[in-house]
Amino acid sequence: MGTTSSALVMLFALFFIERLEFICSSANSNVSCIASEREALMKIKGNLTDEANRLSSWVGKDCCTWKGVGCSNKTGHVVKLDLRNPIPATNGPSTAYFDPIFKMNELSGQVSPSLLDLNHLHYLDLSMNNMQISNSLGSLKSLRYLDLSSSISDETIPPHLGNLSRLQYLNLSNNDLRGPIPDTLGRLASLTVLDLSSNNLNDSMLYSLCNLSSLVHIDLSDTSHRGAIPHCLGNLASLSILRLNYNQLQGPIPSEMGNMTQLKELDLSQNQFEGPIPSEIGNMTQLTELHLNSNAFAYEIPNSMRNLCNLRVLDLSENKFTGKLSTSVGSPFGCIHNSLEDFCLDDKSSDGDHKHVDESNVADETDFLWFYTGIGPVPGWVLGGLWHFEFQEVLEVCILPVH
Ligand SMILES: *[C@@H]1O[C@H](CO)[C@@H](O)[C@H](O)[C@H]1NC(C)=O
Ligand SMILES: *[C@@H]1O[C@H](CO)[C@@H](O)[C@H](O)[C@H]1NC(C)=O
Ligand SMILES: *[C@@H]1O[C@H](CO)[C@@H](O)[C@H](O)[C@H]1NC(C)=O
Ligand SMILES: *[C@@H]1O[C@H](CO)[C@@H](O)[C@H](O)[C@H]1NC(C)=O
Ligand SMILES: *[C@@H]1O[C@H](CO)[C@@H](O)[C@H](O)[C@H]1NC(C)=O
Ligand SMILES: *[C@@H]1O[C@H](CO)[C@@H](O)[C@H](O)[C@H]1NC(C)=O
Ligand SMILES: *[C@@H]1O[C@H](CO)[C@@H](O)[C@H](O)[C@H]1NC(C)=O
Ligand SMILES: *[C@@H]1O[C@H](CO)[C@@H](O)[C@H](O)[C@H]1NC(C)=O
Ligand SMILES: *[C@@H]1O[C@H](CO)[C@@H](O)[C@H](O)[C@H]1NC(C)=O
């Protein structure tokens, strides 16, 4: 999953940095802090436990020079507050909790209601801390960027977030949030990035996202979602990344999803999807990663998949497909074959965990490469017993050319 997503996140990071260019947080600024906002920041600091002394620069009059605080050089208002834990979670947020240096750098405690006095904030990042926010952030009407990932312990997604009509980036991942996605989120018309991954949103309310036509990136992986993908999700024609993996979603893939022609990464793995892959998948010609593994998809793989010429990662393992596959003309793998080849060769040099089909194992008298995709027939003369098991385990099925 790595490259596309980090490139995209980077893109957004640059985008936001650019948008916030007017921020001054350095000493050459000539606008000093607005007194009431300095008071608010002091109250926020006063309520937080700061073991690593991260807020030691929060002294003196000019709050615009304090670490993590940014002011508009036009109005002097605080427009940015970035209190993200600076210690990177090397192996993902879940392991960070066992890292003593990370823990020490957490800010913890109740976020003072004075946060709401900073009502010109465009950018708020409280991620990777251990905070409670009991007040409605819905009044911070100027917010464009809100990152509360791995930081809060609220019970549910606060419905008032739907009042943030300018919000472009919302990250609530890894917070153990419960209950449904509030339908008020369907009002966030400017939203381009929504990450709710790793929560417990057991009620499927995906349809509340269907009108958010600016969305480019949705991550709802590992959110305990049930039910079917609503047909209206196909309205989201600008989507580039859609991750719904590791849920309990059911039913077929709606054919309307073929309207998502900008999609670069689609991850539906580890659900209970069934039925055939709709032939409309061939309309997603920008796809570079397609993860459909560990579902109950059945029938033959549609021939339209031969149109997916940009595909670099394809995982169809652990399904119930039938039929045989080959890389020759007339098979579902028209040009996929070539693009995947590059991926495999690149990746082989690194020491990732993924097992790949090894070129040297391929019988050299054939120009077909078949691979195991589920319960369908396995041509033993190519695969052999060993391969049979390998393909069940591989995360990324790569097809290499046969000489
Ligand atoms: C604010 O500062 C930036 C650089 O720090 C500068 O490019 C911009 O012109 C300034 N804006 C105003 C309104 O002074
Ligand atoms: C700040 O503003 C004062 C006048 O209000 C001016 O004399 C001074 O040069 C300015 N400093 C900078 C760094 O722009
Ligand atoms: C936050 O700080 C204020 C004083 O500024 C205090 O009255 C209040 O009890 C504190 N709240 C918490 C939850 O610590
Ligand atoms: C936010 O929206 C809710 C409705 O979802 C409304 O009742 C509430 O007054 C709004 N709050 C703010 C602070 O704008
Ligand atoms: C959301 O936050 C998590 C943890 O900080 C981060 O790993 C993830 O990349 C963020 N999601 C997006 C889409 O930026
Ligand atoms: C979701 O979980 C809550 C308790 O956490 C429960 O009351 C509710 O019935 C669950 N909803 C579904 C659809 O399972
Ligand atoms: C989407 O927009 C349409 C038309 O404005 C509206 O009728 C519908 O209720 C909206 N759906 C959701 C889930 O907000
Ligand atoms: C979406 O796809 C369906 C069928 O797959 C089609 O009937 C519909 O017109 C498409 N909608 C848009 C907005 O392109
Ligand atoms: C989408 O796919 C379907 C089925 O493969 C095809 O009939 C249709 O023409 C495609 N639409 C577009 C816009 O490519």
Automatic annotation (TrEMBL):
It comes from the Eukaryota. This is Leucine-rich repeat receptor-like protein kinase.
